[in-house]
Design brief:
single chain, 70 residues, alpha+beta, Dodecin subunit-like, 1 helix, 19% helix, 51% strand, Dodecin-like
């Protein structure tokens, strides 16, 4: 039996850092997606005001198995 995996792209945000933005995106996605098995960070950006970073953003892809009996 082979496994098929679906990959979707998400954007996460945080005012603490890029790692926190990834965690936020995965946490929110896990509320509606079962069995997330991996994440890939595609891009990291941030907003800057008055010389300070105040909003971190990440584009990520999350992978999860496709269930055969649905």
């Amino acid at each position: 039996m082979s496994t098929t995996v679906k990959i979707i792209e998400l954007v996460g945000e945080s005012d603490k850092g890029w790692e926190d933005a990834v965690k936020n995106a995965v946490w929110e996605a896990s509320k509606t997606i079962d069995n997330i098995t991996g994440v890939e960070v595609l891009n990291m950006t941030a907003d800057v005001k008055d010389g300070k970073v105040f909003d971190y953003k990440v584009n990520i892809q999350v992978a999860f198995p496709v269930h055969e009996n649905r």
